[in-house]
Structures are given as structure tokens and as C-alpha cells.
Amino acid sequence: MNKQRNFQPIKTGEAKLTSGFWGNRVKDYMHIIKNLEAALLNEKNAARMLNFGIAAGEVKGEFYRNDWSDGDCYKFIEGCANQYAVTKDPDILRIMNQYIPWIEAAQEADGYICTQITLTDKARWANPNFHELYNYGHLFSCACVHYEATGDQRLLNVAKRAADYLCTVFIPLNPALGDFGFNPSQIMGLVELYRLTKEANYLKLADIFVTMRGTKLGNGDQNQNRVALRDEIKPVGHAVTAAYLYAGAADVYAHTEEEALMTALERIWDDMVDRRIYITGGVCPLYVGISERGDHVHEAFSDEFNLPHRIAYNETCANIAVAMWAKRMLALTNKATYGDWMENILYNAGISGSSLDMLRYFYANPLSHRINERIKPTFEQYSHVPNERFFTFDCWCCPPQLWRTYTGMPKWIYSLAEDGVSINLFAGSELDTKLSSGAPVKINMTSNYPWDEEVNIHIIEAPENMTLSFRIPSWCHEATCNGKPIEPGMHDVMVQSDDTLTILLPMKATLYTANPLVEQANGMVAVKRGPVVYCLEGCDIADGISMDELALSTDTEFEEEIITDLPYHMVGLKAELVRRPKGDALYHPLTKDDDKKVPVRFIPYFAWANREESDMSVWLPRA
């Protein structure tokens, strides 16, 4: 059985990917870096490293595009630093070193740094939507990772000066600026900076940014400002800003242990997973709408059980942000449900935003697409609709978010307690760290999970009777550890040097249904194998049958096969579906199902839109 312990993040570079699912995604890292860098240097991209060059006097031009551009540049550098920490590739260092002097020169004398303000006629702290604090937060996180990876203090010094400046503006709590927590990456960033520097004001300021909620209405539910966080009962408003707030509050709780904060976070979480999350882990159905309290919202959580498929927004950054929140809740509570959802998001809606080669991207992640009924990006309602993957874009926050997530995956896989190590995800990887006692720990994990069922964990070095924690996913009821049955949930085992654990996680295609209150999925079924949600693309349907003529019987048998026309040797699922002829009218008489069965192949949802454009569905009618 498990016991509750407060796990802490490992340091950048203490673990690395070696093989398997996550290792494959960053294997060609320089190709990915150069592709991202090219977008950041494109004059018309929404996120531009060029803005720092202009502020530094090294590049001619004017500030261009989004107020949150700086933050997205910091995320790119953070991802590069993650990868440098494990490869020590001088080409990565050269790229980072090219832009750090621009960032240093862009900082003003008092520590303020935001190019969307200094290069324009906008005033400081005039409008929450100027995203100043978003940019600060990603600077703080980037600087901490960069310092851990390189030992270079330049970015860290910029971050400390910027944080010290923020302390002069927001300590004590400034009621006039009570709604300035929009897109609050600064809370997580400040806690990371506190952990690295031990400067108490940084933690104090992070707590103030949590407490500010509800002190000034601002945009109401859109910015999570209508209700104080400690009194909130459900997730509301912009899903990225909400998840960043909840993840930041969890970071604050890790140090203050304020019961009211954890109670609120658990209450909000339970409402989300009971009423407002997709089977893929997507979290924001609404492009534009009205909250349950009557506030205008966009890119937002919706009414309870309102989870449409084709117009689902599910922005990539939001999905990853909820996984970040789940990671923190798992570390704080050691409750398996958080790990289950973290894993579900990371293998589905968290990564469907990138092409398999990480060179093209989606902003939104719907659960259905029709090539002949494309959703037209007319006015705000359908902005960022994902008909085609992009290279440059008018909101380029998702590519660097994915990049820093992939390269930062070792820090998702492992975490530390005083007396041991937690394995949060099964993946080919190595850990080389020390416990707080100074005792060295080295672990080598080999696995091709989630395609293969076997996970081997070799404890190369550990103190005697060290506690190793791991999670058996909730979907797996036939798992074994070293040949003995083991139930879903969190488990602690005592290990020492040269011990080996072999965990088997048998997985097969399983049909899922939705709560009947999810009207869009009522009478429909979806397919999962292990943690991976599957979808059907039109190019994988035989005989020219259309997607909307198919139904899935509950007794369908699935045959596993390796997908040879896509990379990474993923597992596909062959099946025969029922043909249900459809009419062309909006409403038409019911027709009988054909006797003929239609051969199809399901692929992992995250891998859709990597071939020619096709129809796609996660949910299919139940035959």
C-alpha cells in the first residue's frame, strides 16, 4: 500500500530519455530546434525572437504581433535547455547563447522586461490582457532550467531582477491590480525561482497572486476573478489561465501546506473530471460562450457535460497545463487518480497538437473532422480551427509548449521524496540523483510502453530499503510485478542496489461509453488500448465507405498490427464495422444496417492528420 508523501521535482539533467515512446519524439532534436527557431525568426510569426533583438538595438524594426510573444520565446529556450542538459550538444548551447544577450539588453534599469510594452506606446500595468505576468512567469521557469542545465547565471540574473521588481509592484497586495493574474504562469515560475534561490519574497509573492483572485472582478469568470480561489467549486473561464492558476496554487501549497488551498484544488479537480473533460484529456470545449455565472468567456471550460466533438476547442496549451496541474497533485497527494489523468492527457490530447515529426502543429484538438464540411474560421467563434497543421501562426504558443514538454519529460517521469523515488510514468529512461540524505540513486528503466506491456526497472544503486513508488493504471486489472498480481493504484516497495522489478501491464482494445448527460456522445462508443485513445481516419476505411455510414458493434473483435505507414511502430487496431446507410437530408427515415461488414483500421488519436487530410472520429455510433 502507499503512504502520502510530498514528492519534489528532480533537477534538470538528473534523468534522461533513452528509448521508447518519449525518446523517439526528441531523437532528432536539432531538426526540431532549427524548425522552431526558423518560425521565431520569421517576421510575420506571432511569436518573435526578433522583438528582443529590436529591444537590444541589434535588429531593425518594430514590435510585431502578440503581447505574449516573449513568453513563447522563453518556452523555446527552456525546451532547448532541457535537451542540452542531457546531451551537452554545443549546437544547442550556441543557439541559446545567440539570444541571451538580446534578452539581457531588453531588460530595463529597474528590472522590468516585456518587449510588447517597451517597444510600443503601451503603459505598464494598464491592462491585464497585455500578458506581462505571463511573460514573466515563463522567463522565471526558463531561467531556472537554463541555470540548472548550464551553470550560466545570465538568464537567472535577469529573472531575479525581474522578480525583485515585481515584488515592489505587488507586495503588499495591491487592490488596484487585483485582476492582473491573467494567464498566471508567474505563480509556477516564482515558486521555481524560490526553490532555486531560497528568496522568501518570491514564495510570498506567488501566494499573493493566488490570493488576488476575487479581489477585483476584472473579466469575471474568464480570468477566474469572480470567486476567490479558496472558495471556488469548479473550473471556469479560459482553460489555460485556469490550469496555470491551479497548478501554481498547488506549487504554493507544497510549501505553505494551507489546508484551504488544497481543499479548493481537490474540489475543482473533482468537478472537472466528473463533468468537464474529454476522454482524450481535452479541457476547453468553448471557442466563445457564456459561463454558468453569466460572464463572457473564450477558449474556456463549458457548462457541465457539454462536450461537443467537431467544434471542440481543446487548445494544446490548455491540455498540457492540466497535465501540469495533475503532475503536481500527484506529487502532493500520492493519489493514483491524478497520475491516471496526467498519463491520459500526455498520450492523447496533450500531444495531438504536434505532427509526429514535431514540425507542424495544431492549436485546437477536436474529436471529429469532416473534410467536406470544414468548419470555417469565421469571426471569433471558430478561430484557430484545425483544418491543416501550421508552421507559423497567429497564436504560436503551442509549438514551444510541446517542445518544452517533450524535452522536459524526464522530470515528469521521476520525482523525489526524502526516503525514495517515485516513478510517475513508465518510459525508457535513466535516473542519476541523490536523496536529501546524500545517498546516490541510479535507476535504469526499459520499456516500449504503451505499445508493449513489459516494463523493466533496474535499481543500479540505492540505499538499503529505499522506497520506490509507482502507479498501476486504473485501466489495468491483470497487472503483475515480478510475477505476482498487483492491483491498480499507488504502490510502495522496498528496494536496494541491483534489484529488478518486472511489471507487466496487459492491454487490449476496450470500448468506452460516456455519461448519458454528455448528449453529443450518447449512444456512441470510443476505443482505448491502455492509456491511448484511438480514432478512425477516412483513409483507413475500405471500399470508399464514408465515416458517417459506420457503426461499431459492442462485440467487435480487434486485431492488433504494427502501423507501417507512420513512424515509431505504433500499434493499430484492425476491425470490421457495421455499415449503416445514411440519407442526405437533415432528417430522414431510419434505414436498416447492411449485412456487409466494412474493414477499417484505428490509429492512435494523437497521430491523426499526419497523412493526407481525411475525415476523423473518436466517437462512433454504437451498433
UniProtKB/TrEMBL annotation:
Residues 16-409 form the Non-reducing end beta-L-arabinofuranosidase-like GH127 catalytic domain. GO terms for biological process: carbohydrate metabolic process. Pfam families: Beta-AFase-like_GH127_cat, Glyco_hydro127C, Glyco_hydro127M. Gene3D superfamilies: 1.50.10.20. InterPro entries: 6-hairpin_glycosidase_sf, Beta-AFase-like, Beta-AFase-like_GH127_C, Beta-AFase-like_GH127_cat, Beta-AFase-like_GH127_middle. Residues 421-486 form the Non-reducing end beta-L-arabinofuranosidase-like GH127 middle domain. It comes from the Bacteria. Residues 511-621 form the Non-reducing end beta-L-arabinofuranosidase-like GH127 C-terminal domain. One of its GO terms (molecular function) is hydrolase activity. Keywords: Hydrolase. This is Glycoside hydrolase family 127 protein. It comes from Vallitalea pronyensis. The lineage of its organism: Bacteria, Bacillati, Bacillota, Clostridia, Lachnospirales.
